[in-house]
Write a structure and sequence with these properties.
Structural class: alpha/beta
Strand content: 5-15%
Radius of gyration: 18 Å
InterPro entries: RhgT-like (IPR037459), SGNH_hydro (IPR013830), SGNH_hydro_sf (IPR036514)
Order of helices and strands: HEEHHEEEHEHEHHH
Number of strands: 7
Shape: globular
Mean pLDDT: 92
Keywords: Hydrolase, Signal
Family: Belongs to the 'GDSL' lipolytic enzyme family.
Low-confidence stretches: 4-27
Largest sheet: 5 strands, parallel
Pfam family, one: Lipase_GDSL_2
GO molecular function, one term: hydrolase activity
Length: 267
């Protein structure tokens, strides 16, 4: 999917957004929360029979409907190119909430053995050319910004969520440094500079939880590899996300009023 020319500038302002009509407002019963991400969020996780994604559990923690549109193996780039961001935008109505969390599949370089998922290195208007397809590839920040604009133009609010960490106790010692995509989500939020777009540092929330749980408990949450968690690990990731929202870890978000009480404290 090519970007329209109007999207080819990484601006700081969102520009004009369409406002819901009275008919739109009357037609909806209430907001819906959409969750967009990769296998760490997707139902059944890595589809290996022993892992699950945290999007499977988030609906139990909210008072509004939660629609999990996460797909395994996707990055911000491939989710865009497959038209999945646009597909969700076709459903979104004013007042809805869209959570965007990618990062696990976005690394590498499209210039060398492009896998169709890697974003162009950088956090601005840098572009690369895929050595496989010849397509112009944009940065992670750029893809996230364009996606967020699709939803705010419909009157929805957007939460940019940083990726969950890999097993931070895998080596036996604590390794808590975040990937660069955690910072990239912050940069996307800052570039959008809109009250309709907020940030939740999910990586930080899960990291605090993992420090509290300790090595043995965390290792038990990863049955196959260092990325995909067991159903229990996915449930804990969902709980950490909700705790971060409830306690305004990164400021107030549009989901805060829809958190089911009491909130389970996991970190």
């Amino acid at each position: 999917m090519k970007f329209p020319s109007v999207l080819l500038t990484l601006g700081l302002a969102l520009g004009a957004s369409s406002s819901p009509t009275p008919a739109d407002t009357a037609a909806r019963a209430g907001p819906t929360a959409y969750f967009l991400g990769d296998s760490t969020m997707a139902a059944r996780g890595a589809n290996d029979g022993s892992t699950d994604g945290w999007g499977s559990y988030i609906g139990n923690l909210l008072t509004i409907p939660a629609v999990n549109r996460a797909i395994g193996g996707r990055s911000a780039r491939s989710y865009w190119n497959e038209g999945r961001f646009q597909s969700v935008a076709n459903e979104v109505k004013a007042g809805d909430v869209v959570v965007i969390e990618f990062g696990h599949n976005d690394g590498g370089s499209p210039r060398v053995n492009d896998n169709g998922r890697s974003a162009c290195p950088g956090y601005g208007t840098e572009t690369c050319v895929s050595d496989r397809t010849g397509e112009t590839v944009y940065t992670f920040v750029f893809y996230v910004i364009q996606a967020a604009r699709l939803y705010t133009a419909k009157g929805a609010t957007v939460i940019l969520s940083t990726q969950t960490p890999n097993n931070q106790w895998e080596t036996g010692a604590w390794i808590g440094a975040p990937s660069r995509f955690v910072d990239y989500q912050r940069r996307a939020r800052d570039a959008l500079a809109s009250s309709a777009v907020t940030l939740v540092d999910h990586h930080e929330a899960v990291s605090r939880m993992y420090r509290r749980l300790g090595r043995n408990a965390v290792n038990a949450l990863y049955p196959r590899d260092h990325t995909h968690t067991s159903p229990r690990g996915a449930e804990l990731a969902a709980q950490s996300f909700v705790q971060a929202i409830s306690q305004s870890l990164n400021g107030t978000t549009s989901l805060r009023n829809y958190v089911r009480q009491p909130v389970t404290i996991v970190y």
